[in-house]
Amino acid sequence: MDNQLLVSLTEKYGSPLYVYDAEKISSQYNRLTEAFSTVKSLKLNYAVKANSNISILKLFRKLNSGIDTVSIQEVKLGLEAGFAPENIIFTPNGVSLQEIELAATLGVQINIDNLSILEQFGNHYPNIPVCIRINPHIMAGGNSKISVGHIDSKFGISVHQVPHIKRVVENTGMRINGIHMHTGSDILDIDTFLRATEILFNTANEFEDLDFIDLGSGFKVPYKEGDISTNIEELGEKLSKKFNLFCKDYGKNLTLMFEPGKFLVSDSGSFLASVNVVKQTTSTVFASVDSGFNHLGRPMMYESYHHIHNISNPNGRERYYSVVGYICETDTFGSNRRISEISEGDVLCFNNAGAYCFSMASNYNSRYKPAEVLVYNEKDYLIREQETFDDLLKNQVIIDFD
Ligand SMILES: *Cc1c(COP(=O)(O)O)cnc(C)c1O
């Protein structure tokens, strides 16, 4: 988005501020759809946890997307945004049977990822079809915090336990209508993903009454120049071919599903924060902004890179800065970054702030969560107000000791 527009939005709505570009979200959605255009039935379910603002969810509904949810609260947000229950898939991990029952009775497609719950659910509700999450034991990406398909992962039922799944299905009379995998957040190479897909197709062949196959997500987006990103067009072409062959073999046109979060919203978001202090120490120039890991946690939590640029002085002479927050802890957004010269009061823009940024924000240091703005058809819409002091007090039950 245009630097001047972004600066003017901080003047209008205050700083810090999250801004999302609806056009980017639409174009990523359409790009993914295009890449799989030879598949007869394709369904994209946007992963709500990446960014759960209801207006963003409504935008996805307008695009004809479904949603992927991981908590009953996300299911409810989806219903609130107007999604029909059948366009919601519930893919939790480690939640109670009761929570899964609640989602199922709301009419949402449930996805079960352990044998214990599968058996209990099948005993109680043999007539509600269930999708199962399989762990194909394929290592996706190198960061163990965001890799969920490997051997020791807590996610999914091991592909080696398919005989056990089949026994549960036989004993309970339940129906499996979908097979799912989500191998992790980073697909570093297409061949690895295709290998996991083959494993899933083999598993699918063990179940005769499927409606869909859900290949989860893991589409990697570039955060900085030179980053590997998933080549969606190449993946689409190769995978569609394999999927169409599989369907022919299976004797039925199944729906192919994906549940991307990052791919759809990451690049749409800009996080804007103003510089409070420029501080020269013996070896470093720090630029401290009016925000911290309470608002954008990924750099401290995952050592993620977010490109930072000075939108108040985009053409200034570049210097090296460490951009830090105002939280009373080490709170670094980026060390030794080349940024055009920063003065106090300048607005810095953090790129790729659409996914796992606001949705992970907290009130640490008793700061308010920032406002969110959506730019749609060249107009800006406030889609969440900044919190106020009342929000900090809201659920506190105050004991008066006097
Ligand atoms: C988080 C999650 C996703 C989305 O992952 P991205 O890397 O954001 O695309 C998809 N499916 C499940 C089950 C998830 O937990």
Provide a descriptive summary of the structure in words:
The chain is α/β, with parallel strands linked by helices and 402 residues long. The protein has 2 domains: 140 residues, Lyase, Ornithine Decarboxylase, Chain A, domain 1 (Beta Barrel), CATH 2.40.37.10; 209 residues, TIM Barrel (Alpha-Beta Barrel), CATH 3.20.20. The protein contains 12 helices and 18 strands. The strands form 2 sheets. Strands 1, 11, 12, 13, 14, 15, 16, 17 and 18 form a 9-stranded mixed β-sheet that branches. It has an 8-stranded parallel barrel with strand order 2-3-4-5-6-8-9-10, surrounded by 5 helices. Helix 5 links the parallel strand 4 and strand 5. About 1% of the residues have low confidence. The structure holds pyridoxal-5'-phosphate (PLP). Pyridoxal-5'-phosphate (PLP) binds next to helix 10.
Please outline the helices and strands:
Elements: H1 3-13, E1 17-21, H2 22-35, E2 42-47, H3 54-62, E3 66-69, H4 72-80, E4 88-90, H5 97-105, E5 109-112, H6 115-124, E6 130-135, E7 157-158, H7 162-172, E8 176-180, H8 190-204, E9 212-214, H9 232-250, E10 255-258, H10 262-265, E11 269-280, E12 285-289, H11 298-302, E13 308-310, E14 318-324, E15 332-340, E16 347-350, E17 371-376, E18 379-384, H12 389-393
Parallel strand pairs: 1-17, 2-3, 2-10, 3-4, 4-5, 5-6, 6-7, 6-8, 8-9, 9-10, 12-14
Antiparallel strand pairs: 1-11, 11-12, 11-16, 13-16, 14-15, 17-18
Helix pairs in contact: 2-9, 6-7, 8-9
The structure holds pyridoxal-5'-phosphate.
